[in-house]
Amino acid sequence: MVIYYLKKAKAWFTLAVLSASLFAPMQTKAQRVAVKTNALYWAASTPNLGAEFRVNRHVTFNFEAAYNRIKVFNIDTRGAMITPEVRYWFSARPQTGHFVGIAGIGCHYNYVRGGNRHKGDLYGGGVTYGYSFVLGKRWSLETSIGAGALHLREKRYDETKETAPETPNRRQWVFAPLKAGVTLVYIIK
């Protein structure tokens, strides 16, 4: 069982490193770097952290990660998520104003809803739109939404009547919201 989770962790780490190496800017001089956290995720008790790297005046690479583990009353949820995104900013001033993006998502989840346990992985991609409000020289507030196609691969079963299946019993593509955010951003450089 421990080996299974170590393999999962290794797969997620490999995906994160691969995403960062493919999309991260190679040019580091005069680059603008921002760290961020999504307040909507915190409202759902999901700690998260992100970073955004400026590639040029109109393009940035955004990478966010979140983790959740809640077991209160009849709520039992666990999950880890990464979302790499390439953004195009319409304003001449980088990381301000309107932007559109192409985002990916990778997630491992395990939750109970209506007596049914859902345990699996999802991956996919889609488009995002957002706006960044400048609050000060280094601070901004960013709002964003996104939707796309997600591939689910999960074990779904009734915990009170069934045991967990050996292999995933539900595999399907769905069109779904990809992200929603009200994000506090601090620009480092």
What does this protein look like?
- The chain is mainly beta and 189 residues long.
- It contains 2 helices and 8 strands.
- The protein has an 8-stranded antiparallel barrel.
- A hairpin with a 2-residue loop joins β3 and β4.
- It is elongated.
List the topology elements:
Blueprint: H1 2-23, E1 33-38, H2 39-43, E2 48-54, E3 59-72, E4 75-89, E5 97-113, E6 116-134, E7 139-158, E8 170-187
Antiparallel strand pairs: 1-2, 1-8, 2-3, 3-4, 4-5, 5-6, 6-7, 7-8
Mean pLDDT: 84
The helix/strand class is: mainly beta
Major sheet description: 8 strands, antiparallel, barrel
Strand order of the largest sheet: 1-2-3-4-5-6-7-8
Strand and helix order: HEHEEEEEEE
Sum up the overall morphology in one term.
Answer: elongated
Distance between the termini: 44 Å
DSSP strand tally: 8
What quaternary form is this?
single chain
Portion in strands:
over 45%
Spans of at least 5 consecutive residues with low confidence: 25-30
Helical residues, percent? 10-25%
The radius of gyration is 18 Å
Number of helices: 2
Q: Would you summarize the structure shown here?
A:
It is built from two helices and eight strands; from the N terminus they run αβαβββββββ. It has helices at residues 2-23, 39-43; strands at residues 33-38, 48-54, 59-72, 75-89, 97-113, 116-134, 139-158, 170-187.
